[in-house]
Design a protein that fits this description.
By secondary structure, the protein is of the alpha+beta class. The protein folds into three domains: about 5-20 and about 30-155 and about 195-370, no CATH class; about 390-440, no CATH class; about 460-505, no CATH class. Helix content is about 15%, strand content about 20%. Strands 1, 3, 4, 5, 9, 10, 12 and 13 form an eight-stranded antiparallel sheet that branches. Strand 12 (about 255-260) and strand 13 (about 265-275) form a beta hairpin. The radius of gyration is 24 Å and the shape is globular.
Length: about 500
Amino acid sequence: MPVLSAPIHIAICVGMFFVVPVFADDPPGDLADPTPIKGVKQVFMDAADDMALHRTDADPSVDPVIGNWPELDYATLGRWAPTDAFADPYFGNYSTNGGFFRLDMVFCELLNPLGDVNGLYDPIQYGINPVFYWVEFDMDANEETGGDTEEPHLGYDDNIARWGGIPQGERFRDRINTDGEPWSGDFNAVPATHRSGQEFALFCQGDHFYNIDRIEGDADEIFEAGETWIVGGDFFWRARGYDPITYSTLYRPYITVRFKHSIADDVTTVSFVYPLDNDAHAELYGEPPEGIDFFAGNANSIHEAMYDLNLSAGDPPPGTSYHTYRPLLAQWEDQDPLDHLDPWNWRCTMLFGTALDEVAQGGKIVAWTDAWPDIAPGDFNGDGLVSKTDRQMLSSYIVAHDGELGYDADEEINNQIDRASFSDRFSVHDIDYDGLVSISGFPEQDPCDYDNDGDVDLEDYQAFQKCYSTQPLNPEVLANVGCIDAFDDNGDLDVDLGDYTVFVSVLNNP
């Protein structure tokens, strides 16, 4: 662990809390806000009121802790330039010249750091509103590189189908666990939940917690309204699939994360600032710059970690040339780490949850509550639409498994699938996450409602314009973008003037 010398890094052992002078407030415009800055700061907006409990255990008798359940409002990710990184890395501005990256996750209501769940099991050690989070960063925007080969069940790809759909994007193809089947450990298995594309993961899962560096508030050891804590530990890890095939092996630097609750807005913002290169690390600790040595225990940064990937790919460490995990690294041989230090180009997935009152069957302790990117419940093919195509996929699934021994718990052919212990063995087709899969649970799509938002408005009209043609078009092409499902009223496999007449008749406002 680095020697901590700046005021923000004064280590306070767990259990020993002191009231200290309050930091300066973040300057105007630098608080997390849902305003993108082109080329500098990304914003990830989460759907409102979409928080829902998604258990991971097979024992419904164990309840989640009493308190606020994590619901993301939005998150921001950008290149960050602190005014004085040594004094306070959270005070500064977003800038193309920033030597750091900053992530802010803004949650509705009061949340607190998760307590110890690997010792005495005390998830409410710091308050009754604990938050799990697992955030993955794909820094080269390449799903073929990186991944977690130790605990993929903690990640987005292994859990997002619990919400009753799959996300949009080619990067998720063949990587989403749709039926709760745990990864077999076979590197070539599909779905490849272990090949998420992550280069780093930031997590809070009740371990790797070292200290509380600074607290703003009282000294009762409970994170309360209006307080600010900065917690330290090694909970920012380079992807574990890289561990056995790189020179640095384990790249898990000591870092700090800030929890800050605003009474005025009743939101909790979890913030993380980290050096992009070793020069920025020197600014953070007020030390002379250090060269790259692949050791996270001294100067560490994104650049150092990715430089190791490039070197290890081109000149493999002894005994790793034919390692099973080598495909995770192979494409780094031709990549320049300096090309991937811009957070504007990074991709993220995020998963959030709360703790269970006690350890449940199978050692499960978490109930997921929110995720980003969002999915549309009922979107089984990941095209962003809930349409006739998805309804047909649901029907085919039921026909294939209705009454199947070992799959349908009621073992009866009755047009529904009973997924016993569904929290542990879920199905993407279980839209409301109650363990029963039937066609009656599928939302109907109104005529001409392309985006399935309950109305036919100008957004649907824009889609109709793209689908419209006076000449017959390839029906497979039209189906792939949802045109046939939404606009082909007369069933002739095109979208023409006859369909336009129907569209105009139902056009309205929200």
